[in-house]
């Protein structure tokens, strides 16, 4: 593909079949094939260029995104792409746009909460993009606390309409993506008021802009909420503000799958169970976990390749210096992130299965697994997004000074990724939800209630509360059973300790609140266990291809043991392992780093990312970093002229001591 | 000052004298007074406006910075500001500019490495800004490894000149701030070559641009290296690339305080000790520690105030919701950062003293403390900048979605701050230097060598290696002696364990390299001990003012105990404390959070930051967040028109299904 390959010597070292690993990473040959095709389609089309993003003004940036979104849709239609292909194509375009919310939130909300007639009407339009929709939930004053939203939807029995209204400044919708400048419609969440009675928050389909001239409809004020973190990053998105002044919509635009308002203004529940709504949430969060593995693997790919290119110190007799990837500190920061990328990939894959499973159960009116599934997805969303955001920034630092340049791709990747820690549930708030579920589960221990899914391990509470680890050698730490037992015991003991401490408080609510920092840690321990155990499941299953299993075992070990090291206090204070065993774990970890080292570049090649998608000079496939960095620098607008704009007004008078009379 | 004060109820709760704390924070009444005056001077002058930074193009942004720098200099001259005042004024202008490098690196380099005649000539020009200088050390291929720089300075005895040359692409100077577009001169680091012999890297004063027309001099190629992390952030700085094609400078432009080249081309050492050079390094790193406390306190100020304004969940009977600062998870994330800001402030103050002390000693030809001082400043630079970068981002997350807006000030603060982890020594590389010093110190234990300064505790190795903590109650954890003993024992035991493991390796270098991840942790433990012990020194000294001591004690406890919690594995595995004592520490920590809570807003008011300096709507002194956020949003250029640029070309054809014929 490339002419020179500065990383060829690294690729030759690999001890496994990279092509086979690409399939494992993608999930299936089919998934690989679709991703591969779509990513090349995007990369080879100059219309999808993105290397100029950092220097565009907000308006140029935004306009360019509108162009790309339209062009992508045109291609999707022309090529008759399947839904799967289209979504991959949008993914590889790699630029937040209103289409993300249209396809990712607006349509799923209608699907999940709308009636069949509503599907018929609105989804038909939406699928063809004859309308563009966004998801307008958050307000200036309320995000996490959805039940506290202030926008009202008051039923007017005279006209058979709802009156949508923003009674306060803080009730202004604030943040919805695609709202600010593009969406024609929105699913608006508002308090349903009938006859003066407040029935809580419900969803309504509201047309925002005229389909003729795009002007906001009467009574509607909309704008963009301004610049966000980073240069390009999320600024390609028109997160918006929206106020309603008594805007009327027909009654049938309330999403009525679960609850309905009749012509007479009666509020009734349909026979569709409310729990169905959770299905959407599980779906959305599962995509977030899968996005986490993409974002993290992308950063890791850049950092691994550049760490193999970059040499610093350690030259002997004028020979080449040491590749920084050979420094043990570099490895101990980088390889756990490489392992996490794989771990999140596999747990994301499992979540996809879980979503299908729960959907089937819901359709069969079986709700028993729902709380567990809900806690599990909430927790994994929190865990993987936090680790990914931190991991991207660590990868940036691992690239030294050059990682601070936009041309490294990493600053913008961080800036565009990091809101994932906040949207779809603030990560701390989510951990507390998991903790609540854990406390409930712990309180039922011994009651004979069957524990399922990711809580099944708690069934063995008696053993896990008192067991001591039998690890005797560094080698033992490779055995899944030892790892699992340590993680299970730690998670359970932390949860049980919290429950005990809560029971000492005047009342459970007060106790929960006082101990919430500890509870969040217990929730993290539970979630880490899930990721570890799904990674172990993966390597215990069928994996074809030369050397793949060995590599994945090493990565799984690195993932688990680096967590053990990081959270050592918890493992030791709960008596799950001894200091001696911890030292053995560290020893094993070092040997696993050495094992992964010669395979590192091949392990990131397995992500199969194009240079276009990576968008990073440091992460180029061919490792030809320095000439390209140099070339790129000259493209900055500041280099348009040798003497900068402002020299004559502001620099020369200063040098010549003539500031007194200068106009500044 | 302000008309409404939404935070008045918080301020009324404070249990200490805020005005007195302002003095303690500033370091002295004089320092407070200067800072206060300069910050108001900047804040009240519309020429220093900075709220529009996020939407300017690179060129506009840069030009505006040139204007501000010139205007600041004009004011400095007009008002005959002292050096101290001038430097504060530049600080509060709060925009990276070429002047930072001119005053902060170019002048100190000449001061530290130049002869008296060189001072006479160059400093005179530089102090008046008749020349503008930068610090050109780093190259495309070498940053951390300064000894590996490739630029050459070859002595030509015929003409009595040095020929400065860039022999390779990777020898291009890359990163120097102020270089790209502004500097007329640079201190250039290059390999000194005499008669074919390489004498290693030395500094040279090189004129880069004509003082007449600002064009690069013959043989010199200069440009800007392009966009960096963030919007405004560090993009106001012209970090540059520079290549020399056999550029000649007179012999007397080599910085010759320590080594000289004679007219005959002889390389001679002056009688000035080489160690003097370290003085500059200590000076620069001390300012970085003090900047860390500024940046962190600024982020904490925003997050504390906004957490007191923001309410979410927990409304009872329609009353107001809970202030998010009352959630224990919020406190456990936020208050350790508040405590760290104070801790870094005090350790920075102490470093200032240390710098003066070492300078005096150097002048008296006393070098014995130098290795310890060097390790200590390197370590503290690494520790405080890492914690500050992470802390700023945590503060941003603590503000939920709104923290992601540039108008919160936090994204840009992070982007502009974070390179401090990389420049002036990559933080990992620095920790390894500290570790090397620690290993040397450990190897001398028992040799009778007197240990001084921050290593004095190792003198008590025998006790610290086997002591067990006597903590019996949560209350005990407030006693400085218990805290110190635990931190000393942990630091020493980690260092000794590393030394033992190194000694098992085939050779010390190999051992050091294999264990370097553990060594970096040992270095962190040593540095945390320094910060803790300086905080304790501070509260054990004189502190006037109602309630101040109580607050600082609480913060000191929070700083130490939150570290103990975070690194619990190290305290437990080395047997410094027991799990039971760890639980008591956690209990104490919770009660300290409760103690600080009513004082939190006052504790950030004590930083005395103006709203201009904070640059954050969420952190406004008056807490009037929502109306101002709303107002600010409309200023985005995207809101110039209701229908966005690009609608007619890219949105309408899509909605109308007319993409096939659209030009995209
Ligand atoms: C880039 C981006 C895109 C978005 N897109 C959309 C969109 O398309 N549509 C939409 O409707 N919204 C959107 N949002 C809004 C997003 O969903 C909210 O920001 C998110 O739900 C967090 O809520 P918040 O901002 O109110 O945070 P807050 O709840 O105000 O959080 C502030 C702090 O309080 C803490 N906290 C809050 N409650 C508790 C509690 N009970 N216990 C302990 N701690 C607590 C949090 O942990 C956090 O530290 C978007 C946001 C962003 C940043
Ligand atoms: C905003 C900014 C401003 C700057 N301003 C200036 C300026 O004015 N003048 C100037 O001369 N320079 C400047 N620099 C350059 C800066 O000093 C260097 O970037 C810095 O010294 C780090 O070196 P590096 O980039 O070569 O990192 P590298 O050394 O390449 O680091 C890459 C990775 O390798 C690791 N590594 C390297 N060596 C070792 C080792 N021996 N052991 C273990 N790990 C190792 C590092 O930890 C890091 O993870 C600036 C940089 C930035 C980002
Ligand atoms: Ca004792």
> So, the CATH homologous superfamily of the largest domain in chain A?
Butyryl-CoA Dehydrogenase, subunit A, domain 3
**Oligomeric state of the chains?**
homodimer
Hetero groups in this structure are: flavin-adenine dinucleotide, calcium ion
- How many domains, in number, for the residues of chain A? 2
Structural class of chain A comes to alpha+beta
CATH topology of the largest domain in chain A: the name is Butyryl-CoA Dehydrogenase, subunit A, domain 3
Structure, briefly:
With 664 residues, chain A is an alpha+beta fold. Chain A is built from 23 helices and eleven strands. The complex binds flavin-adenine dinucleotide (2 copies) and calcium ion.
Would you write up a description of this structure?
The structure is a homodimer of 664-residue chains. The first copy, chain A, is an alpha+beta fold. The two termini of chain A are 54 Å apart. In chain A, the strands form three sheets. In chain A, strands 1, 2, 3, 5, 6 and 9 form a six-stranded mixed β-sheet that branches. Chain A has a three-stranded antiparallel β-sheet with strand order 4-8-7, with no helix packed on it. Chain A has two domains: 146 residues, Butyryl-CoA Dehydrogenase, subunit A, domain 2, CATH 2.40.110; 328 residues, Up-down Bundle (Butyryl-CoA Dehydrogenase, subunit A, domain 3). The interface between A and B is large, with 141 and 141 residues. Chains A, B: It comes from Cinnamomum micranthum f. kanehirae. Chains A, B: InterPro entries: ACOX_C_alpha1 (IPR055060), Acyl-CoA_ox_N (IPR029320), Acyl-CoA_Oxase/DH_mid-dom (IPR006091), Acyl-CoA_Oxase/DH_mid-dom_sf (IPR046373), Acyl-CoA_oxidase (IPR012258), Acyl-CoA_oxidase_C (IPR002655), AcylCo_DH-like_C (IPR036250), AcylCoA_DH/ox_N_sf (IPR037069). Chains A, B: Its cofactor is FAD.
């Amino acid at each position: 593909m490339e002419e020179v390959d500065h990383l060829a010597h690294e690729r030759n070292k690999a001890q496994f079949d990279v092509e086979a690993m690409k399939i494992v990473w993608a999930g299936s040959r089919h998934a690989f094939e679709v991703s591969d095709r779509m990513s090349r389609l995007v990369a080879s089309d100059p219309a999808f260029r993105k290397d100029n993003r950092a220097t565009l003004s907000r308006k140029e940036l935004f306009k360019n995104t509108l162009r790309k979104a339209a062009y992508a849709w045109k291609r999707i239609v022309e090529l008759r792409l399947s839904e799967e292909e289209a979504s991959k194509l949008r993914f590889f375009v790699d630029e937040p746009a209103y289409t993300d919310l249209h396809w990712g939130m607006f349509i799923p909300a209608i699907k999940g909460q709308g009636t069949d007639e509503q599907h018929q009407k609105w989804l038909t339009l939406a699928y063809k993009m004859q309308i563009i929709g966004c998801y307008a939930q958050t307000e200036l004053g309320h995000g996490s606390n959805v039940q506290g939203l202030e926008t009202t939807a008051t039923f007017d029995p005279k006209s058979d309409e709802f009156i949508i209204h923003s009674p306060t400044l803080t009730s202004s919708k604030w943040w919805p993506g695609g709202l600010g400048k593009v969406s024609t419609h929105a699913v608006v969440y508002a308090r349903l008021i009938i006859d003066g009675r407040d029935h809580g928050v419900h969803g309504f389909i509201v047309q925002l802009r005229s389909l003729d001239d795009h002007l906001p409809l009467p009574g509607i004020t909309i704008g963009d909420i301004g610049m966000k973190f980073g240069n390009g990053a999320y600024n390609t998105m028109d997160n918006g503000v929206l106020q309603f002044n008594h805007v009327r919509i027909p009654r049938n635009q309330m999403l009525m799958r679960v609850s309905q308002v009749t012509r007479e203004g009666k509020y009734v529940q349909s026979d569709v169970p409310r729990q169905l709504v959770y299905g959407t949430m599980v779906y959305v969060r599962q995509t977030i976990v899968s996005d986490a593995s993409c974002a993290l693997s992308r950063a890791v790919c850049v950092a691994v390749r550049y760490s193999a290119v970059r040499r610093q110190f350690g030259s002997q007799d004028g020979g080449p210096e040491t590749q920084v990837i050979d420094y043990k500190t570099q490895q101990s920061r980088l390889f756990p992130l490489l392992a996490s990328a794989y771990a999140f990939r596999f747990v994301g894959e499992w979540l996809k299965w879980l979503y299908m499973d729960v959907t089937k159960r819901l359709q069969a009116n079986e709700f028993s697994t729902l709380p567990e599934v809900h806690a599990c997805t909430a927790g994994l969303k929190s865990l993987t997004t936090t680790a990914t955001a931190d991991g991207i920034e660590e990868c940036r630092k691992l690239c030294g000074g050059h990682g601070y340049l936009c041309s490294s791709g990493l600053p913008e990747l961080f800036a565009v990724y990091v809101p994932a820690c906040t949207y779809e549930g603030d990560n701390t708030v989510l951990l507390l939800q998991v903790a609540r579920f854990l406390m409930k589960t712990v309180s039922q221990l011994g009651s004979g209630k069957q524990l399922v899914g990711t809580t099944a391990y708690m069934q063995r509470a008696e053993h896990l509360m008192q067991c001591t680890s039998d690890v005797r050698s560094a080698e033992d730490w490779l055995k899944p059973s030892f790892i699992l037992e340590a993680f299970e015991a730690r998670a359970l003991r932390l949860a049980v300790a919290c429950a005990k401490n809560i029971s000492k408080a005047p009342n459970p609510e007060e106790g929960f609140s006082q101990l919430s920092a500890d509870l969040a840690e217990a929730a993290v321990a539970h979630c880490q266990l899930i990721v570890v155990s799904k990674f172990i499941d993966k390597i215990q299953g069928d994996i074809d291809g030369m050397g793949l299993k060995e590599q994945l075992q090493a990565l799984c070990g690195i993932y688990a043991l680096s967590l053990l090291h990081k959270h050592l206090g918890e493992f030791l204070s709960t008596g799950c392992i001894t200091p001696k065993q911890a030292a053995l774990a560290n020893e094993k970890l070092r040997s696993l780093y050495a094992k992964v080292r010669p395979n590192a570049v091949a392990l990131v090649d397995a992500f199969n990312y194009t240079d276009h998608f990576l968008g990073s000079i440091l992460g180029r496939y061919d490792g030809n970093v320095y000439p390209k960095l140099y070339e790129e620098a000259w493209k900055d607008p500041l280099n348009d002229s040798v003497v900068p704009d402002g020299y004559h007004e502001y620099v020369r008078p200063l040098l010549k001591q003539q500031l007194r009379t200068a106009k500044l």
